[in-house]
Write a structure and sequence with these properties.
It contains eight helices and 17 strands. It is an alpha/beta fold. The chain folds into two domains: 200 residues, Formyl transferase, N-terminal domain (Rossmann fold, 3-Layer(aba) Sandwich), CATH 3.40.50.170; 95 residues, Roll (Methionyl-tRNA Fmet Formyltransferase, Chain A, domain 2), CATH 3.10.25.10. The strands form four sheets. A seven-stranded mixed β-sheet has the order 5-2-1-6-7-9-10. Helix 1 packs parallel to helix 6 and helix 5 runs antiparallel to helix 7.
Length: 316
């Protein structure tokens, strides 16, 4: 019989929701949720609950939203929940040592990469942007250093050549949630083997920036395609055509050679725009969004935009 643990949960965005749901459905008790303060969200910038808080409120769980984690009152409040274990899933901040020592079994984290590769804030997007063929989720011990704790378990997921970051992240959230509960069950029964990371093999996955979305057409089409799908659904890859900013939502690589300078439009077919990229390769845009307008298929864009011969994508 598995011992029932009291779990303090730390998380904020949608990625963390499957883990919280799995814990709530397990034999363990979620004694409280720590999530980031409410912030303006969406186009209207209205202050709304983040996904984890929304679920916690729905289930009637105690919720703590501290502005500063190092304030002594934060550790005191969590201590009153009497947690046996802390579980972290995309909380969004580094936890200070004062919090790590509160649960008697310490804290473990659901991290969306195969550590030590891609420590940091954007592991899924960086893996897709790099054209990796595989990624995964690692359950790791939380330590003061960023994503450097010992590993308790991992699960892998292949990355298809056309998979976008949101699809990969959704799957990893589900896989990680199931794996996390298995590890919590194991910790309830006794010690679990922990494997130290080899920090010499570590890579860093920094937060995404809008500036990274500007397409460099001198890169091979495959690299551009990887960036398009890795930067989806935010901040998006983009380029300029005749002074208009166009967000590239979906693309593919064409095996045909491109005998034109990078960025040149080779042809606009019924359902796609073919553009020359570096190394005589060819990228095909199938879905895009003009600045300030709705998303549309390439055929719809072409129907409303005459593209003169010799047109070329490039900087503003």
């Amino acid at each position: 019989m598995v011992t029932r643990l009291r779990v303090a949960f730390f998380g904020t965005p949608a990625f963390a929701v499957p883990t919280l749901r799995q814990l709530l459905a397990s034999s363990h008790e979620v004694c409280g949720v720590v999530t980031q303060p409410d912030r303006p969200r969406g186009r209207g910038q209205r202050v709304t609950d983040a996904p984890v808080k929304a679920l916690a409120v729905e289930r009637g769980l105690p919720v703590l939203q501290p502005d500063r984690l190092k304030e002594p009152t934060v550790a005191e409040a969590i201590s009153q929940w009497r947690p046996d274990l802390g579980v972290v899933a995309a909380y969004g901040r580094i936890l200070p040592s004062s919090l790590l020592d509160v649960p008697r079994l310490g804290m473990i984290n659901v991290h969306a990469s195969l550590l030590p590769r891609y420590r940091g804030a954007a592991p899924v997007h960086r893996a897709v942007m790099a054209g990796d063929a595989e990624t995964g989720v690692t359950i790791m011990r939380v330590v003061p250093e960023l994503d450097a704790g010992a590993m308790l378990a991992s699960v892998t997921r292949p990355i298809g050549v056309d998979d976008t970051a949101d699809v990969v992240e959704h799957d990893l959230a589900e896989h990680g949630a199931v794996l996390l509960v298995r590890i919590v069950d194991a910790l309830a029964a006794g010690p679990v083997a922990e494997r130290p990371q080899d920090s010499s093999e570590a890579t860093y996955a920094p937060r995404l920036t809008k500036a990274e979305g500007l397409i460099d057409w001198t890169l091979p089409a495959r690299q551009i395609h990887d960036r398009v799908r890795g930067l989806y659904p935010w901040p998006h890859a983009y380029s300029y055509l005749a002074g208009e900013r166009l967000i590239v939502l979906a693309s593919r690589v064409d095996d045909a050679a491109a005998d034109a300078p990078p960025g040149a439009i080779i042809e606009g077919s019924q359902d796609a725009i073919h553009i020359a990229a570096g190394g005589r390769t060819r990228l095909v845009i199938t879905r895009l969004q003009p600045e300030g307008r709705r998303a549309m298929e390439a055929r719809e864009f072409l129907a409303g935009h005459a593209i003169p011969a010799g047109s070329r994508f490039g900087v503003e």
